[in-house]
Design goal:
The chain is mostly beta strands. A hairpin with a 3-residue loop joins strand 3 and strand 4. The termini are far apart. The chain has no helices and five strands. The strands form two sheets. The protein has a three-stranded antiparallel β-sheet with strand order 1-2-5, with no helix packed on it. A two-stranded antiparallel ribbon has the order 3-4.
């Protein structure tokens, strides 16, 4: 999930298969901070409620090459 502020507006941006270890996010605005969190799901128990978030900021200018 991704959020613009780490407190609300969390949106699911992908649903990956079990065992996935990475994800590449694309189409982001330059010079913008984004917050991410991973939610595990169990088909019987549903989503977990214990998770931490991490942030990343895109470069100010898009690379030319």
């Amino acid at each position: 999930e991704r959020s613009p502020n780490d407190t609300s507006s969390w949106a699911e941006i992908a649903s990956l298969p079990a065992g996935s270890e990475s994800y590449s996010d694309s189409g982001l605005a330059c010079g913008t901070s984004y917050y991410y969190r991973v939610r595990a799901v169990n088909t019987t128990l549903g989503y977990n409620s214990n998770f931490n978030s991490a942030s990343a900021t895109t470069p100010l200018l898009a690379p030319t090459n």
